[in-house]
Design goal:
This protein is of the alpha+beta class and about 80 residues long. Helix content is about 25%, strand content about 25%. A four-stranded antiparallel beta sheet has the order 1-2-3-4, with no helix packed on it.
């Protein structure tokens, strides 16, 4: 008896695998954090993934810095 692959069974198996992957992916409640952070020597960045806004803090070699709202709150508190 020769065993070969059945094309119909392969297609059904692939379709079921894709459907299961889609269902499990849709059921995932895990969310990416809203703010992402990155640093380099003398630089710090905050990226808001929801709005796309970026804040940068730069400290020059002369000791001056450019914060442009870097130290300010990034979100407003919820109203009671």
């Amino acid at each position: 008896m020769t065993k070969g692959f059945d094309l119909k069974s392969m297609i059904v198996g692939l379709a079921l695998g894709l459907a299961l992957t889609a269902v499990l992916g849709a059921a995932s409640k895990e969310k990416t954090g809203r703010f992402q952070f990155a640093t380099n020597p003398g630089h710090a960045f905050v990226f808001d993934t929801q709005t796309g806004q970026v804040w940068e803090k730069f400290e020059g070699s002369s000791g001056g810095d450019n914060t442009s709202g870097f130290n300010e709150p990034k979100t407003t508190p919820a109203s009671p």
